[in-house]
Specification:
The chain is of the alpha/beta class. It contains nine helices and 17 strands.
């Protein structure tokens, strides 16, 4: 009887061992597949990673003209509060939080908005607290390449950069006529490297060769090159031939688009070699109340994906420092004027009238 029990137990033990070995074999086959299967799995994983890394997500970039927060604008802020400036301003929902929302900051950002020597006839300095309030309206990038960033001298320019750094704004731009490292800022947004270069040529000519070489280098290192230009003649609503020629050279050097300013009025646009040139966006926040043209502006929305550009045009009007989107007949007439004055083919002229351009 005892022998039978031992035989039964031994048989049961051996059966359990065989079952365990079989299960182990199955599990190992699942966890550690054959070499060819391992290679196949690794290939699939690598392919998926490569596809993900190359995926280019759409970017929204929104550009405005000149912002000036001193003089009569500062008086409005003191009297009615900063939000008064934006009380009538509302963008379409899909443009309220773009990846880049930029403008030309037309003056120095100094401690408490202090003015320093040398004295100039038109002299701007902004309080960092006022500039910080622009974040509420989603501004995150400034061009500081203009003829007013040095109104408060070298110290004012240094403080401008320091204050914008403290406020976590991105920016680019050297003082007027200068070309250097301060002209360029490279951003990495949604797997896209973006170079934003800003130059000013109001009181003289830039070192053209050095500037174009900088743009070419930026093109070689990034996916998208945006060039801000402070140029042209104040209050003229048509760009001059020398500006147009220079704009073409900038595109030929590698710029994907040019955003211009300084004239304080909107000028025509051009599509050159498939790239948009906006010669001047005019004013955004400014106290030049003396003409209709200086109280009009243009915001440009850029959709960028797979190296293709779609443009949204937002005509603006201002009254007593309050900017708002044009609507109705005034918007229609403004876009008709822009279409008629711009250097584009008939197909693009019709698109400008509708406020949307596809390149």
């Amino acid at each position: 009887m005892m022998k039978k029990n031992l035989t039964f137990l031994l048989t049961l033990f051996l059966a359990a061992c065989v079952a365990a070995l079989f299960l182990s074999f199955i599990v190992l086959k699942i966890i550690y597949p054959a070499p060819e299967k391992q290679a196949e799995l690794k290939f699939c994983q690598a392919e998926n990673l490569t596809t993900a890394s190359k995926e280019e997500k759409p970017l929204k970039l929104l550009f405005f003209g000149d912002i000036m927060l001193d003089r009569h604008i500062k008086e409005k802020i003191k009297q009615k509060g900063f939000d008064y400036l934006f009380a009538k301003f509302e963008l379409p929902k899909e443009w309220q939080q773009p990846d880049i929302m930029a403008a030309n900051l037309e003056g120095a950002v100094t401690t408490n908005g202090k003015h320093y020597p040398p004295e100039v006839s038109i002299d701007f300095a902004f309080d960092p607290k006022d500039v910080a309030r622009l974040k509420k309206y989603n501004f995150n990038f400034f061009s500081i390449a203009n003829n007013h960033v040095t109104d408060q001298g070298k110290q004012g320019y240094i403080e401008t950069r320091e204050n914008l750094d403290k406020l976590n704004f991105n920016y680019s731009g050297c003082p007027d006529k200068q070309v250097g490292e301060c002209n360029i800022k490279i951003l990495d947004i949604k797997n896209t490297k973006i170079a934003v270069l800003s130059y000013s040529m109001v009181y003289g000519i830039l070192d053209e060769e050095k500037m174009l070489a900088q743009i070419k280098d930026a093109k070689a290192r990034t996916d998208l090159v945006i060039v801000n230009m402070h140029w042209g003649v104040e209050y003229e609503q048509a760009s001059r031939k020398n500006i147009q020629t220079f704009g073409h050279k900038i595109v030929d050097a590698g710029a994907d688009m040019i955003i211009g300013g300084h004239p304080h009025v909107v000028q025509e646009m051009e599509i050159y070699s498939g790239k948009p040139i906006f010669y001047s966006l005019g004013n955004f926040i400014f106290d030049q109340y003396f003409s209709r043209a200086t109280q009009e502006g243009l915001a440009v929305g850029i959709n960028w994906q797979d190296k293709k550009i779609a443009i949204n045009l937002f005509p603006l009007q201002s009254k007593s420092a309050q900017m708002e989107l044009m609507t109705g007949e005034r918007r229609e007439k403004f876009l008709e004027w822009l279409a008629g004055s711009s250097k584009v083919g008939e197909e693009y002229r019709e698109q400008i009238k509708n406020g949307k351009i596809k390149l």
